[in-house]
Amino acid sequence: MMSPDPRDFGLNRFQCVRLQKCLQPGEGLYWAGAPAYPGVNLPLLYWCVCFCMGLAAFVCWRARLEESPGLFILAAFPVMLGLGLMGLPYVIRREVRRTVYAITNRRVLVCAKTDESWPLTPDMVISNLQNEKGIGNLVFALRPSTDPDCKYPYDELGFMNVRDVRLVEEILEKAIAERMNA
Asked: Could you give the C-alpha distances from 95 to 31, 37, 79, 88, 157, in angstroms and in order?
């Protein structure tokens, strides 16, 4: 069942506007969604922040013992690192909230920092992975990695961290079947 309105899929206001900009005239939506929030290992994050603050306190203590004001400047680095780590969950959540996935009657869309789309074709899913919670990835394309230190030579492109990935794959297969029959 196609819908022309992104609000029918439970997206937030920003995601609806973003998706409307990506849609072409005459396109209808079979499905639209957003990635699941991956979460952050909070105990590990807590200990990293505590380590950074402890290191800053140690550097300040050494600077006071040696009466060296230059060492006080060094204490700013662990403090900044600790503050950056505390902001990490916010940055991840913001990125997730700005990403929209959609299956239309013509193509598959990923609206994120850079918008990408793939036409509906049979066997377009290269791989699908799912964890025990039903969250998974639908990979449509591979791109050579831009990171020289990356242990994987390719970046996967597609729907990443999608809730109920099997249902989304079924909707995609129905959209492809309708596209091929039209």
From this structure: 20, 9, 24, 11, 16
